From TrEMBL:
<dbReference type="InterPro" id="IPR000210">
    <property type="entry name" value="BTB/POZ_dom"/>
</dbReference>
<feature type="domain" description="BTB">
    <location>
        <begin position="15"/>
        <end position="81"/>
    </location>
</feature>
<dbReference type="InterPro" id="IPR011333">
    <property type="entry name" value="SKP1/BTB/POZ_sf"/>
</dbReference>
<dbReference type="Pfam" id="PF00651">
    <property type="entry name" value="BTB"/>
</dbReference>
<protein>
    <recommendedName>
        <fullName>BTB domain-containing protein</fullName>
    </recommendedName>
</protein>
Length: 244
């Protein structure tokens, strides 16, 4: 059985920097050690621009959303995302099923922008967990057009999150449903490529939802062959909540 690694002892010195985020200029005072964990991009910017951001110890991020950056910083300090199903503070990213997928998609893209693989992988796990768990009426919820557009606009070709979106539609939703949405053109191209490959391989593409209910490292970013063990933890968590 995989165990969560013990969190590293927090280094709470007085070495702080300030992020000023969004149009409303929300301030976040952050330990420099947490900035390093949150993003190599931010760490390098604070280090290299000693004449500007470094000396002032302030960086302005006008194009980012404060709640999304807050989640990135939360992850840097705590080492995990809030639990989608039990933690109240998750409502900050979306308080209905579709809104939560849109929020998770935004989190993934901020992880992409600031190059935090662990954060991206954790966001993928939250989406996989959400895909797998039925609501009180027994229905499953899937990411819809806005979440797919957010992912496709905020990630490069070949992204694991793009692959997850495609696989959800190939294995979970069924291609027939895509006509109901206005989707991203690159998503349609990836979907057709995935379906073509499956048909050429002789695989039956639909009604294989269980493929999505078994979380794995397939959608994570780490060295090939490496397994972070989160699939086992997620499966246990999902089995405890809903019949598969
Ligand atoms: Zn993994």
């Amino acid at each position: 059985m995989a165990h969560l690694p013990a969190p590293a002892l927090l280094q709470l010195s007085n070495d702080m920097v300030k992020l000023v985020v969004g149009k409303g200029r929300k301030d976040f005072l952050v330990h420099r050690t947490a900035i390093a964990k949150a993003s190599p991009v931010l760490q390098a910017a604070f280090r290299s621009n000693t004449w500007k951001e470094g000396r002032a110890r302030t960086m302005v991020l006008p194009d980012d959303d404060p709640e999304t950056i807050q989640m990135l910083l939360h992850f840097a300090y705590v080492g995990r995302l809030p639990n989608l199903n039990t933690d109240d503070d998750y409502s900050s990213i979306g308080n209905d099923h579709r809104g939560q997928y849109d929020g998770l998609a935004r989190l993934y893209c901020v992880g992409e922008k600031y190059q935090n693989k662990d954060f991206k992988n954790a966001t993928i796990d939250a989406m996989l967990s959400k895909v797998a768990i039925r609501d009180n009426e027994g229905s499953r919820w899937f990411p819809s057009s806005p979440a797919i557009k957010i992912i496709y606009n905020g990630t490069p070709e070949g992204s694991k999150a793009r692959k997850l979106m495609v696989d959800i539609y190939v294995y979970g939703v069924g291609a027939a449903n895509i006509v109901a949405y206005t989707l991203h053109l690159d998503f349609i191209k990836d979907l057709i490529a995935a379906l073509t490959k499956i048909l050429l391989d002789g695989e039956i593409p639909f009604f294989r939802e269980e493929r999505l209910w078994i979380p794995s490292c397939e959608y994570h970013e780490h060295a090939s062959g490496e397994c972070c063990g989160s699939g086992e933890r997620l499966t246990k968590d999902i089995r405890g909540r809903t019949p598969l």
